[in-house]
Amino acid sequence: MKIAIILFVMTYALLIIFQNYRAYIAIGSSIVFIAFGILPGEKILTAIDWNVILMITGTMGIVSLFIESKMPSLLADIILEKMPNVKWAIISLSLFAGIISAFIDNVATVLMVAPVALNISKKLNISPVKSIISIAVASNLQGAATLVGDTTSILLAGYEGMNFLDFFFFKGKIGMFWIVQAGAILSTFVLLRIFRNDNKKIDKTSRTVVEDFFPSFLLVGMIVLLIIASFLPNMPSTINGIICVLLLAIGLIRDIIVKKNANNAIRVVKEIDYFTIGLLAGLFVVIAGITEAGVVDELSKLFIKVSGDNLFVIYTIIVWSSVIFSAFIDNIPYIATMLPVVQSISVLLGIEPYILYFGLLSGATLGGNCTPIGASANIAGLGILRKEGYSVSASTFMKIGVPFTLAAVTSAYILIWLIWA
Hints:
Elements: H1 2-17, H2 22-35, H3 44-47, H4 50-68, H5 71-81, H6 86-101, H7 106-124, H8 129-141, H9 151-160, E1 169-170, E2 173-174, H10 176-194, H11 214-231, H12 239-259, H13 263-271, H14 274-292, H15 295-307, H16 311-326, H17 331-349, H18 354-367, H19 376-387, H20 394-420
Antiparallel strand pairs: 1-2
Helix pairs in contact: 1-2, 2-14, 4-9, 4-11, 4-12, 5-6, 6-7, 6-8, 6-10, 7-8, 7-19, 8-19, 8-20, 9-17, 10-20, 11-12, 12-13, 14-17, 15-16, 15-17, 16-18, 17-18, 18-20
């Protein structure tokens, strides 16, 4: 156990210090865990959640095709036509980014919606900083709303065997989707306060032309098939991942046939985030290793000892410590590490784990909005601003991110306790 703890602490430290090499660190650490015999060789393949890996791979590819079709730009144009001024345009773009992000990766959402905000800012000769930040934090917020909204949601679903509909209604109670929407409503009031003086009118522009609707059908089809699969009994454990990868394959084959050129299909395959996939695969093995060594059980006992066996105290610690940790470290390794710990805590307390799972998901997913480095979407948004010549300080970001996070997390914290305690 001591060796496992030392290796795990070293792994986490390296993940935090060398963020550009996280995948290599996780994979390297997993090899060391295996080499030391901490995780038996026969458990390596079962340690990796292939459903999660396949889902992420498929959805990333489908999203790439969807973005290329320009459908998100058309939807944004339609929304802007209805808005009277800058304030409502930015609020509506933030809400739109949130809705899109419930079904599409957060970074991809920012890359789709941010250029629209930049275009508005250039036309009106105003700074795009606040609007891009608002789009980024709104994207992060909705990541916890559905099974495919964010890698953290996919991790929870894979670990607990949840299906698409379980995020809407679970065990006869309302699920994370509605809890996140309550947070979105409260955080929208925060944005209204921030943009209260931005009342410049917006000139109407021509709509983006979409010539290929098939990627949109693929995305909608993925959601529909994931819902259908949730009703079918005796499905393989990797059914969600199989659906996503098969639909991506259909999209790529169709793209090659229609365009009579494989270059675009190759581009889509290259754009899949293999770095994150490698990170997850390595982390799955590492976490299986510390679980095998008994580290997870000891962490669970420590939580219970600190809280005095009080569920409310444990729940509170998990939610708000997740917010703090996720403000500074990537929430993917954090969630992957904490899921087995939370499950072990629930066993020791003799309760169902769902209140702790949902508290963990809300704190870790929404907590990333506190700082510029807390979430990949924030980094992507600031990268776009940097290319446009805008340097954004941490304090500027946090003036929007912190109140936005507090509004969203506090409402989730209260609602999850009232519904699941």
